[in-house]
Fold each of these.
Amino acid sequence: MSVPQEMSFRESVDMMFNRAVALMDLPPGLEEKIRVCNATYTVRFGVRLRGQIQTFTGYRSVHSEHMEPVKGGIRFSLGVNQDEVEALAALMTYKCSLVEAPFGGSKGGLCIDPRLYDEHELELITRRFAYELIKRDLINPSQNVPAPDMGTGEREMAWIADQYARMNTTDINARACVTGKPLNAGGIAGRVEATGRGVQYALREFFRDEQGMQKAGLTGGLKGKRVVVQGLGNVGYHATKFLMEEDGCIITGIIEHDGALVDASGLDVDAVQKWIAKHGGISGYPDANIIEDGAMVLEEDCDILIPAALEGVINVSNADRIKAPLIIEAANGPVTAGGDEILRNKGTVIIPDMYANAGGVTVSYFEWVKNLSHIRFGRMQRRQEESRHQLVVDELERLSADSGVGWQLSPNFKERYLRGADELELVRSGLDDTMRIAYQSMREVWHGRDDVHDLRTAAYLVSIEKVAASYRAKGL
Ligand code: NAD
């Protein structure tokens, strides 16, 4: 058997796309229209810092405008380049389509190591980058709506929103120009942890799929499953925290940029995260074995491997040594096309990025809707819901007393039943529903078609079919 060759991130995404469309019957030309990236804008701008002008390079790529606005995060990292941004924008198109978020795909990036700048400097740089994109409508509530990604978070999104508002003083929907904002600046409850929460919901749904479990050779539930995570940032931290605290998983390995921690009896994710926040890495962490060559820990024996840091970390050079029977791609593109082929041949089940990390864009969609409707979710119906529940409880208690049966509703039940849903509960419910439905649509194709052998191909088939239908409806 020939050894698969490695390719760039964008070529990898294109190859996976091509593998899926070969199984479809798309009209000539439409396939190409969906695959290509519509436009990529490159900007170079200067910011005066520490007494001299420093020049930065940034990108915003729009992959598909079959639905507008287009949506996708902004990444701050030294690895940012045009190929990467275009690959990530394409993934956004397929991701939004798969989870039925009504957006086209986009992505942005700034070539910068944010750790080298203080907060004030980062604000100057972010605002200047945002200014360049806003004046070209590459940030706009109805055309292009960014969100956080690697190296950015709530703080940067708040600066971007404020910059847009300053430049568009009469736009009543200004806050909808970006998502992932802090709650007090137009954000939504549950957005910060949404991608990690989505990874948890995805795994729960996978563990309800008996055929899928069989294909991975796994049995039982999530409880007691050994998990290795790469990257304890926003996504990796929240995913492992929820899996540990709520599903009983054991986190046996944490890989970070400066090495890895391993402990077969389980690592305390919160303690490790606090250590990293204070010391900048895992080095010196006292309560676990430290492995200097962190990437080696990807090859550790475990049940679930969660790459949640960078792209391309599982590739032709290490895929055959990966022991985990199940990989969930919390990061974008962590498995290269070459790595994917080796793993597929080995029978490893991969829950693909376009589904696994779609929790972020799903809750971003809710935030965008909230901003456009100018009202917090649950504000109108919460108390009304509570008073209707109170009616039922009063009636049950009256019936019980009148009939002399003497039933008592347990206080715990009463308290839980009476409480109307607040925004956080509604967001979680919407996210859970989205992750379940998207998984079921992939599962149907994965188990139902003889020519589909993996979840990634199934995900592409489901999502490309929807994008194609949208183009057809537009008359293209
Ligand atoms: P983040 O910046 O919060 O965290 C990334 C983590 O990876 C950091 O802790 C960093 O130290 C670590 N890291 C960096 N280089 C590493 C290396 N060589 N080995 C191990 N760890 C390393 O980023 P994030 O927002 O958690 O994003 C992580 C991935 O998830 C990215 O691929 C991103 O595109 C994807 N993603 C993020 C979101 C979101 O809502 N934030 C949504 C969808 C997808």
Amino acid sequence: MASRLIEKYMRGAYLPHIWCAGCGNGIILRDVVQAVENLGIERRDTIIVSGIGCSSRAVGYLDFDTLHTTHGRAIAFATGIKMARPELKVIVLTGDGDAAAIGGNHLIHAARRNIDITVVVFNNNTYGMTGGQFSPTTPTGDIASTAPYGSIDPDFDILALAQTAGATYTARGTAYHVAQTTNLIEAAIRHEGFSLVECVTICPTHYGRRNKMGGAVEMMKWQRDNAIPVAQARKVRPEELVGKIVYGELWCCERPEYTQQYAAIIERARGKEK
Ligand code: SF4
């Protein structure tokens, strides 16, 4: 990260960070900070919320108003903040386990309401902090500490889930595609409504090592060689996309935003009282 961004947005006293050498989390964190910088949003108008897990440690390093909440509940806390202070930009930083397993219900209902928060999911396909257990996005057959002979759970697509539940913006980036991922996060923050950006990242320590993917460099090269832009992916047969990462903006539409509807209800109720 450029030293200017570090000085402006990071809590120097909390560095160095705790992430392993080669972890992709720092790249995604940099993308978030760069997106905020590009948008010119004031720090005092931004709240960043996280749950529990390696990626959720990100809020500790960010010099914003931040909340490090309980496991799976980041979106619930963010919903409360947005309802109380709808004028603020509310951004959630979360992991695949935090957002899609224990926090799955909160994700579904925030998407259904189309509340204007941006969720950035650091998807490393595992529970890194607790030792490499399989998560909802661990590809079927892959090795985890809780699946030493391969996971039999079908993995699922967080973006498809969010879109089906009612999200009005979904996108996918990777740790390798820095500029594109920054642009996607920027668009998600700008979007009025529930937005979710899945950032496919790397966990060399648990996921990569167990699945014999090599170190951080090899994992990044794998992302480079197996990622397909969404426009290109739409032209090929579904079977050709098995094992690939489709990146870019996958869904964007408009629908009434929740806090605005709530404000309208308050106005209507006040009108009746007169
Ligand atoms: Fe990153 Fe994995 Fe280490 Fe957690 S365990 S800091 S996700 S490399």
